[in-house]
Amino acid sequence: MERTMPRDYYEVLGVQRTASKDEIKQAFRQLARQHHPDVNNAPDAEDRFKEINEAYQVLSDDNRRAAYDRFGHAGVTNGGMPGGGFSGGFPGIDEIFEELFGGLGGFGFNTGRRSRGPARGRDLRHDLKVDFQQAVFGAEIDIEVNRREKCDMCSGSGAKPGTSPRKCPECNGSGQARRVQQTFFNMVTVTDCPRCRGKGEIIDSPCPKCTGIGAVLGGRTIKLKVPPGVDDGMQIRLSSEGEPSTSGGPNGDLYVVVHVEPHEYFKRRNHDIILEISVNVAQAALGDVISIPTVEGDIELTIPAGTQSGKVIRQRGKGVPKLRPDATTAGRGDQLVVVTVEVPSKLTKEQRELFEKLGQTLGREVIPQKAGRGFLDRIADFLGGS
Ligand SMILES: [Zn+2]
Ligand SMILES: [Zn+2]
Question: What is the pLDDT of residues 354-369, one digit of tens each?
Fold first, then answer.
């Protein structure tokens, strides 16, 4: 499945990376007004609007925006995951303003309300814990999702088998009630029909299994493919795996939020894995070959003679796979081994004698370090440049 790289979300909305929530909202409103397919007949209006809406969904949500800032599109989309991508239609233009003026912001987790057409089911969120290793190499994990399922007895209609719902006489099946308010203007407010609650139909004999709701609570197991290289806070969207609509609309989406458990030894920094080790003064001075852990098991590492505390040794390709927006990976990061030289705090009699001898050969001269090039600076330089 070939997907073109999506455009930068900030660029799509034409805002700075430092834009406030209000600025983002304002930019979105302006663009939505121009490009919504309800008001713009250009052939690419729909695509353009989808792009705008997607950018807004991400940038208006603090967590998703943070993930996007750190990881780009890989942080907020599920790329080539089954059923991935933009789905479920998009909000009507009046809904946009309703949501914006209502201050709810964003459609990432929809509330199932739409002012036109059948309502989408609700989006669901599932929090998934993975261990460090699973995050690095990917995993197939069964997740249990509790959601409302379409009732199998009435196939979701809510009517007792053998009967069917009838058209609501109050709204003649439209599901809408119009009210004209006399203010400075004639204001027409459209609300859900109170008789049928916006469904447009009335059930005389409700289905005994779901009591007319059309849905029952059920658990489902979904086999989730976690792609290699996921990081803490990333979201995987499974479209149409959310709750079913109660009025014949499309399902909501399921957002799986990934939580990576910390590792005993490894820390992660984007695609690099940081491992801190300590060696003794003899190993540091004379050099040694030692065994150290990597995510793929132990390997040998050469400590060069004359190693100073704070030295960082880079092991290429031993880091985390670089996850791309389409859920494939391209290359891997590195493992960065930070070496600390341990000075013994307790000495045996023999060690004391040896150190005293050593001390005599080294002399007692104190050489001041050049200012500004301390050990912390070196680590910062090294990590900053990777
Ligand atoms: Zn039923
Ligand atoms: Zn009605």
Answer: 999 999 998 877 777 6
